[in-house]
Amino acid sequence: MDLHWLKPLLGRPGPFITVLLDATRADASGDAEVAGRWKSLRRELSAAGASDTLLDVIEERVTRPTGVAGPHGRVVIADSTEIVVDRTVKEPPAQSSAVYDAVPALAPAVRAADQATRFVLVEIDRQGADLTWSDGTSARPEREVVDGDHDVLHKIREGGGWSHRRMQTRAEDSWERNAETVAADLDRQVAERHPEIVLVTGDVRAVALLRDAVGQPVRDLLVEVVGGSRADGVNQSAFEQRVKDALLAHRARRREKVLDRFRTAQGRGEAAVTSIGDLVTVLQRGQVAELLIRDDLALPGSALTARTLSVGPEPLQLATAAADLTALGADPATAREMPADVALLRAALGQDAGLTLVPDGSADLVDGVGAVLRWVDESTPSEAVPSQSADQARLRDVV
Q: CA 113 to CA 91: how far, in whole Å?
């Protein structure tokens, strides 16, 4: 999971307000339902000491229609003065909640956003394509039209002499040239915008021509979804479900790919660590490519959120004890205790690491955490043997 959307929180002053809201509007009364959920959360935040002025700003934002159909949620994080993160997520939280604290409640926020996928949907026919770009939030997707510039588009019936065959060839050529126009635009934009997956649907012949015309980087990302079209008459609900299924399968592959890397590296005793202590060490050094957290620990009240780490002003200044921050260039006087989940995610953000939430039993994670590393050296904690003073049985213990 890409954590870039949380980066604006780095260096912001607290306290923070974190809101996870069920923003679903089931019918005409949906606005009142969302307002009612927010009203209950606002009472909790006000009682905790949150500013009424800031709560007014959040209220105006969260009660405004998202324009998203069907069930969905909203994650809003504000610092002491303004809203910093506002993200629509595909699945509403099981229960709307709000936290007012010195640090943002990042674990439930990233858990809510775990279903997000950056993708582009290409709906193509013989004339061109509609491109819909999404960052995975479902809110305000960007749509654009790419038209071909060749207008001999209709094949004619077989037979009829040389002139008819020439027109048929011109029609075939027009389809190919228009597919190439779409492909060139798609190649350029994918290189610039880096979607995780390219979904393509529409006319069967146009889809095949597009697949042949795009460059290898785009071809590697292409997944065909049947049932879509630029024309009217599509069973939209059935098609949207196929898109959801394709994105769900992609996220499962994305997670399994990370877990395969972790298991392989762990088995070799290189480029992977687990346990809070070892993870803190590699985060301090900027070695982490992907942070792994057991998914049930990304919940309010879990053992990870209840545990604390010492942190300094900079994201990579974290330690299991405040005295250890001196070696990282932090003044112990500036040290503060932070929930372990926030401290770990903060450090991961500080080195552009990703995050994978791991189903229980999918990997051996001491303390429920681990990492895939960018690089290793002789001082990197090794998983070949326990790197801390613990016995072998501890490798199976999790919080």
A: 8
| CB-based contact 203:124 (threshold 8 Å) | yes
First to last CA, the chain: 23
Q: Which residue has the tokens 């972790």?
A: 262
Domain spanning 119-234: which CATH class is it, in words?
alpha beta
Exposure pattern of 235-255 as b/e (b: 16+ CB <10 Å)? eeeebbebbeebbeebbeebb
SS3 at position 268? helix
Q: Hunting for tokens 């205790």 — which residue is that?
A: 337
Q: For the chain, which residues make up each domain, given as ranges?
A: 4-112, 119-234, 257-396
Q: Which two tokens stand for residue 321?
A: 């004890």
Q: 344, 350, 360, 336: which is closest to 273 by C-alpha?
A: 344
Q: What is the DSSP string of 195-220?
A: -SEEEEEE-HHHHHHHHHHS-HHHHT
Query: Of 283, 257, 268, which is closest to residue 338 (Cα–Cα)?
Result: 283
Contact 222, 214 (CB under 8 A): yes
How much is the pTM? 0.78
pLDDT single digits (tens) 129-179 = 999 998 776 556 788 988 876 554 333 334 444 444 444 444 456 878 899
% of the chain residues with pLDDT over 70: 87
Measuring CA to CA, which residue among 124, 123, 122, 126 is closest to residue 150? 126
Token pair belonging to 80: 């002491």
CATH domain 4-112 topology: 3.30.960
DSSP 120: E
Shared fold status for 4-112 and 257-396: no
**In the CATH scheme, what is the code of domain 257-396?**
3.30.1330.30
What is d(CA 329, CA 110) in angstroms, rounded to the nearest whole number? 29
